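Data card: per-record layout.
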Amino acid sequence: MAAGWRRTLGLLANGRVLAVGRSSEGQCDVQSWREMVVLSCGDWHSVGVRSDGSALAAGNNRRGQCAVEGWRDLAAISAGYLHTVGLRADGRAVATGDRATGACEVDEWEDVVALDAGSYHTVGVTASGRVLAAGDNSYGQCEVGDWHDIVAVAAGSTHTLGLRANGTVVTAGNNADRQCEVDDWSGVQLP
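The structure for this 191-residue chain is written out next.
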């Protein structure tokens, strides 16, 4: 499943996609998608990876965030507010969309094993457990350079989370609604 702004996507075992919710900009026009293995929802666009490693996108493309048709050999994909990032099987990151915030400045990233697109920033984690970040840092959401032993990352609107191998969680960024108060979390695992 994937949840976006006012919409939900579901991935069936046969690779087809279900969609419900707001579709005024075409973000739910995924009925023709087949052989999908990964889905992600941005605010106004939906993206996915097919079993052959190619990407598909639907929805608002005003900033080029849906320009993924040439992407190949993908292992993962993530949709942000006005950008999309992909992770190639060789550990390199690719991005398209609004470049004003710097969230698409991932071309130099290597050895990446996971990534996530926030509203205006992108985070990734390398095989060595180091975290990379690009984009808007107005709330300190990209201040992740000293994180270590990270196995997964998640980018929110203006905050970032990292899951350590020992099951604890670290955060950076906006805590106005207490979204970073995870200091006592332990035993968190990847699905």
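Known properties of this structure: The first strand starts at residue 2 and ends at 4. The mean pLDDT is 97.

See the next section for split statistics.
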